[in-house]
Write a structure and sequence with these properties.
The chain has 232 residues and is of the alpha/beta class. It has nine helices and seven strands. It has one domain: P-loop containing nucleotide triphosphate hydrolases (Rossmann fold). A seven-stranded parallel β-sheet has the order 3-2-4-1-5-6-7, with helices on both faces. Strand 5, helix 5 and strand 6 form a beta-alpha-beta unit. The longest helix is centred in the middle third of the chain and has 16 residues. The protein binds adenosine-5'-triphosphate (ATP) and magnesium ion.
């Protein structure tokens, strides 16, 4: 099982878009998929409610809600047997976001970023917090950037690329700026499930993203703990 958390405290950068499209892509490839929503706005949860039974099943967990009366938190958060991907959507801002807990329960952290100077500066600050407060590197988490609503060769994007190179964080997908994402979101589906032929252009990004995740799953890094023990 691979646990993927989509995070960036900057609002509106595409966390829900990435979480929902990735979940629907994984599920439609026949993989047991959980979509866990920590955001009180409940965008992912609403998306899943809009998804009809004709599409591949995704198990939803509304983690932002308290457990129902008579049930425990452990019961509410239960991951069904046979799950291959647990995809977590997280809120914007810091007030309802426990960075240490969210990092601890992820194997991979995907960070969507928009190509504007303001978004890039906030994302740089967020990545510093992930590393310093969340200890993401020390805990051996894999970090990767998803460049969202990409317009090729903006100055801001070059600045982000330089910053990421200095931290050795890969950009693993670039998503087009297209109304397809808005239309798919309303229907509870991913862009790859849209009927429009033109939307098929956008499927490649999700295929590449899943390929990258499969590589991560096949070649887990040796945990720091093991390295320390083996080197004495
Ligand atoms: N690549 C894209 N092309 C067009 N529209 C997009 C794209 N990505 C996201 N959007 C739209 O931008 C808006 C914000 O995206 P989204 O809700 O995924 O961001 P978010 O980071 O989850 O926001 P929040 O911080 O509020 O949770 C949504 O209306 C979404 O449909
Ligand atoms: Mg969201």
């Amino acid at each position: 099982m691979l646990r993927i958390a989509v995070m960036n405290t900057k609002g509106g950068c595409g966390k829900t878009t990435v979480a929902t499209n990735l979940a629907s892509y994984c599920a439609s490839r026949g993989c047991g998929t959980v979509l866990r929503d920590y955001d009180r706005q409940a965008s992912s949860t609403r998306w899943l409610k809009a998804r009809s039974g004709g599409y591949a099943f995704i198990h939803g967990i509304a983690a932002f809600e308290p457990p129902r009366e008579g049930t425990t938190r452990a019961w509410q958060m239960q991951i069904p047997a046979g799950t291959r991907y647990v995809i977590t959507d997280t809120p914007a801002g810091y007030s309802e976001f426990d960075i240490e807990d969210r990092v601890a329960e992820a194997d991979v952290i995907l960070i969507p970023v928009l190509p504007s100077s303001i978004d890039i500066s906030s994302t740089a600050d967020f990545i510093r917090d992930l590393l310093l407060v969340g200890k993401a590197r020390a805990l051996n988490k894999r970090l990767a950037i998803i460049s969202n609503r990409t317009r090729i060769h903006t100055k801001a994007l070059e600045k982000l690329d330089r910053f990421l190179q200095s931290l050795d964080i890969p950009v693993i997908a670039r998503l087009r700026d297209t109304q397809h994402y808005v239309n798919a979101a309303e229907k509870g589906i991913g862009v790859h499930e849209l009927q429009e032929r033109d939307a098929q252009k956008d499927t490649a990004a999700w295929r590449e993203l899943l390929d990258w995740l499969e590589d991560v799953q096949d070649s887990p890094e040796i945990p720091q703990e093991t390295l320390r023990t083996s080197s004495g």
